[in-house]
Amino acid sequence: MAVKRGMLGQAAPAASVDTDLYIVPAARNAVVKVIATNRSGATTFRVWVAVAGAATADKQYEAYEKPLAGNDAVATISFMIGPTDVVRVRAASSNVSFSCTGIEQDE
User: Fold this and answer.
1) Which fold has domain 3-106?
2) Per residue in 43-76, pLDDT tens?
3) Is 6 left (phi over 0), alpha (psi -120 to 50) or beta?
4) DSSP 24
């Protein structure tokens, strides 16, 4: 069984832009955590999972308009995702960096 551990995706999106942070490869699954790091003043962010790359819908959110203090970082709880699922992120400012860490393995 092939296993990949560690950093699975990173992004520093423009303000208010939905961004694909990590896409699970076909025939793989993953347990991931998303870390949002604010490099400036207070803002908000979102994290969601689009099952099989579906269009964004209310039911997908892991975090929605979560406050993020200036020069602070917040991590989601770990969650499992399956083949071709997409972890998406968005922040109200362009000063937020996102990292997706975890374990990816064969199904």
Assistant:
1) Jelly Rolls (2.60.120)
2) 999 999 999 999 999 999 999 999 999 999 999 9
3) left
4) P
